[in-house]
Fold this protein.
Amino acid sequence: MKTLSISKIREEYSDSIIKTFSVVPSPKVSDAVVEPYNATLSVHQLVENTDETFCIDNEALYDICFRTLKLTNPTYGDINHLISATMSGVTTCLRFPEQLNADLRKLAVNMVPFPRLHFFMPGFAPLTSRGSQQYRSLTVSGLTQQMFDAKNTMAACDPCHGRSLTVATGF
């Protein structure tokens, strides 16, 4: 259903930027049999019909809740809180004026070296659990270090063990 919608939107609004936040399933969070099939079958449509795809991994979110936020039994509400915080951070440029990457098109131009390489791995800092009211002061270097830490990455991989074609940070 989602890929059909994206395909129709691409046909109707061919010159608009299409951004998606795609959640990859994990057996740690849900044991639904069809989830891996849905994710696998949607990749082709994401490659062909989107301009920016932010890949969010349920396993990484579960690990963030369990290890970083110290939640003993993470719920969908806790996982959705992390996703919404990430989406809010990525789309900040649409709500507040800034100089660099001020809209979706500029972000795509600066981040996508080749049209089919538009899959991003978001990181977020500082991580807080739902209802948390703890405030602490952090430096820019501390926030940057947290963003590139594998424990704060929304995909189950370590960004320090590999190569990045492009990187964007927003403060």
Observations:
- The chain is about 40% helix and 10% strand.
- The longest strand covers residues 19-24.
- Strands lie at 19-24, 52-57, 119-120.
